[in-house]
């Protein structure tokens, strides 16, 4: 698979006409809804002719906007993830839209009944994603081919690999399922040899249809710098330590599935900030449950995330209780302690 920052789309001459930019409020789309169909029909037929580098299951992701086109193949590996934003360290750099956040979006594979999917998690960015029905989404699961608007860009993708049909030449019809409300029930997908757990809707996804499940966005929680747990649905404690000082927050089940941001920015969890040094990025990492595993994903941080002296991009926190260092081996230590579920 392509591990570079992204490949230019050489098969397409010029940028597609994605429509006139619209200037509205913060949560309003910057592009009209027909920009999705225009980008899809202009780029996907050419992209579908490019052979994958290997036979691994993957998504072919593409982005277009402000005269810029790009794509990359994203392997659906166990610990794979991408960070999208304006920062030069991001895996997908969208530098032409100054309204996007430096680290705006997390993309991770999700195993679901009926086929592979992708979780797109807004890192409390400056603006939401928008679907073809103009609904604003901060976190979603895409099953099958998909396209969303993010600021002045269109981002989309389609499955590639063994047994995958060619993507449709026209934008696939989407079905939206809303599970983003705080009191929405979280449904578990059945476990099997080939599918993991996940709070996702079961769906059979075809080549001309996709299912978009709206999920809760990452949240900012009030700190609980104390022993024990005061959260009724608590599933774990996220603790930080530096120079003999300690702090920890209690994380509930829904918060863990939505994602907890760690960093110096105001949008990150306040309970750990007192211990974070200037070397920790403003949005350094996110702790989130994916397919039943508690994962820490580095968000293209400047000074990195370390495990046993080695820089890593992702760590499974609920196996062997690893101690993770933020911003270097002598930085802030982070540890996850699971509570009885």
UniProtKB/TrEMBL annotation:
Residues 82-107, 260-312 form the FHA domain. This is FHA domain-containing protein. Pfam families: FHA. Residues 1-11, 170-179 have a biased composition (Basic and acidic residues). SUPFAM superfamilies: SMAD/FHA domain. InterPro entries: FHA_dom, SMAD_FHA_dom_sf. It comes from the Bacteria. Residues 1-27, 161-200 are annotated as: Disordered. SMART domains: FHA. Signal peptide: none annotated.
């Amino acid at each position: 698979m392509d591990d570079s920052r992204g490949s230019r789309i050489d098969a397409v001459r010029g940028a597609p006409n994605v429509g006139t930019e619209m200037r509205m409020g913060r949560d309003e789309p910057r592009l009209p809804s027909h920009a999705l169909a225009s980008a899809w029909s202009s780029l996907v037929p050419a992209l579908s002719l490019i052979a994958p580098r290997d036979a691994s299951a993957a998504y072919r992701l593409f982005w277009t906007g402000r005269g810029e086109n790009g794509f990359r193949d994203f392997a659906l590996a166990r610990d794979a993830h991408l960070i999208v934003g304006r920062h030069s360290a991001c895996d997908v750099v969208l530098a032409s839209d100054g309204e996007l956040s430096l680290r705006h979006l997390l993309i991770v594979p999700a195993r679901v009944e009926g086929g592979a999917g992708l979780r797109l998690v807004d890192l409390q960015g400056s603006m939401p994603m928008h679907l073809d029905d103009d609904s604003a989404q901060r976190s979603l699961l895409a099953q099958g081919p998909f396209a969303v608007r993010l600021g002045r860009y269109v981002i989309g993708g389609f499955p590639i690999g063994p047994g995958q049909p060619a993507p449709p030449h026209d934008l696939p019809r989407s079905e939206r399922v809303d599970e983003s409300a705080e009191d929405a029930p979280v449904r578990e997908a059945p476990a099997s040899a080939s599918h993991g757990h996940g709070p996702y809707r079961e769906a059979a996804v075809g080549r001309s249809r996709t299912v978009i499940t709206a999920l809760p966005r990452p949240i900012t929680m009030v700190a609980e710098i104390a022993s024990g747990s005061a959260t009724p649905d608590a599933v774990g404690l996220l603790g930080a330590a530096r120079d003999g000082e300690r702090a920890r927050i209690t994380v509930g089940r829904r918060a863990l599935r939505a994602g907890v941001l760690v960093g110096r920015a105001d949008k990150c969890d306040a309970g750990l900030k007192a211990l974070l040094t200037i070397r920790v990025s403003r949005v350094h990492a996110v702790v989130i449950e994916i397919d039943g595993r508690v994962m820490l994903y580095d968000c293209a941080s400047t000074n990195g995330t370390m495990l046993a002296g080695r820089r890593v991009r992702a760590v499974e926190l609920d196996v062997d209780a690893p101690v993770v260092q933020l911003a270097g081996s002598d930085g802030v230590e982070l540890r996850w302690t699971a509570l009885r579920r």
